[in-house]
Amino acid sequence: MSIFVDEFMAGLKAKNPAEVEFHQAVQEVAESLEVVLDKHPIYREKKILERIAEPERVIMFRVPWLNDKGEVQVNRGFRIEMNSAIGPYKGGMRFHPTVYLGLLKFLAFEQVLKNSLTTLPMGGGKGGSDFDPKGKSDNEVMRFCQSLMTELCRHIGQFTDVPAGDIGVGGREIGFMFGQYKRVRNEFVGVLTGKGLNWGGSLIRPEATGYGAVYFAAEMLTTRGETLEGKTCLVSGSGNVAQYAIEKILDLGGKPVTCSDSSGYIYDEAGIDREKLAFLLELKNVKRGRIKEYADKFPSAVFTARDSGQDSNPLWDHKADCAFPCATQNEINAKDAQNLVSNGVYVISEGANMPTVPEGVNLFVEKKLLYGPGKAANAGGVATSGLEMSQNSLRLNWTREEVDSRLHGIMKAIHKQCVDASAAYGFEGNYVAGANIAGFVKVADSMLDQGLV
Ligand code: NDP
């Protein structure tokens, strides 16, 4: 590590102790940016990196609610308003027991650069709660969402901060939060994205992150004159992102063979076809069941239970061409990364945020794989949220084809920005450096224009 990155990170860690995911995300970016800061001393002089790594505002609050037995429950709610240099704060809400300040700061920090890459005017934010929707009744989820929004509604707004979904927050949760915002504020505005189609949502928003990650993989393959046709693909997760990544892989002629949840994964050598995908969607979105039921239903699939004592995840240890990690952060450890390389995987497009540990990222870059980091590859979700905001402002709904073609165009534009920025700074073929640099420069220049705020 360089002296500059060492010193910068020592300061950041002292100021934000025990926020390991936040340290990891900032460090990767700082390492990519050193050459940019050398070339443009004004960024150093105006302490742009230090300012970008400090949230503009952090809101942390109590969320009390009653469970179905009438017992009092207390969770913690957060909203990190990270950077508004290029637009209103924008980023999802995550409901998961692992949520704490440092996790959301990592996600908010990534979001700033990701939103910048989308070409749309959106700043970066993130929020959520340590609430676990798993095993809760619809009424419990509703009471929790209403309590959370009763406080959050003071801090967000269509022109200030527009949350969306993330892990544990899908259409159901967005609906309950939107309803409460409307009730308390007495206004029907596009304050959340991922809304239902009848009340301001956009076609293709549910599909957008997964579709976008696959479009990004297809773009990377184009640089080698190849397509996804006939490629075997490993997918992790079975939630929103994974489901639509699988659908788009099928559309483009690929063969998805795995998916997972926190209890384990299935390997279906025959491939997850459209009929099996329909079963998966019903299982996960309606029945809210576990992934093992896929293997109970389809004999071609084998279920492997998660073993937290293992030093690697067997999902990443199958022969394949492409990998789409779509579950959660740090789900590909150093050994998993090595297994992917040994099994011939040479395309990795990250649907999840920061799913690969730094050693894995370094290995993929060193081996010159087609490696699309999350902040570029999964930006289709927030980009389509931006398109939902545009439609809300226009009071119009675009067709499925219109939104999909804009999404596709944005993913191509993100890919081009990564390629151009990496080439301009001497990192040809390195999408990590390309995404970090292109995302940073736009935000940094906007911060310079707006003075010391
Ligand atoms: P969902 O809640 O719909 O699905 C998450 C999936 O990942 C589930 O299958 C879940 O299994 C699994 N998972 C979550 N946490 C863990 C864990 N700690 N260990 C193992 N498996 C886990 O979330 P999304 O699909 O929306 O999000 C997935 C990833 O994509 C996240 O990293 C998110 O930040 C990122 N992302 C999402 C966007 C969106 O538009 N939704 C946009 C950009 C990025 P289980 O149900 O058992 O917990």
Features of this protein?
single chain, 453 residues, alpha/beta, Rossmann fold, 2 domains, five-stranded mixed sheet, five-stranded parallel sheet, 17 helices, 49% helix, 15% strand, binds NADPH dihydro-nicotinamide-adenine-dinucleotide phosphate
Main sheet properties: 5 strands, mixed
Here the CATH topology of the largest domain equals: Rossmann fold
Estimate nothing, just give the exact number of structural domains. 2
Question: Which molecules are bound besides the chains?
Answer: NADPH dihydro-nicotinamide-adenine-dinucleotide phosphate
- The largest sheet has its strands arranged as 1-2-4-3-5
Quaternary structure = single chain
By secondary-structure content and strand pairing, the structural class works out as: alpha/beta
Low-pLDDT stretches: none
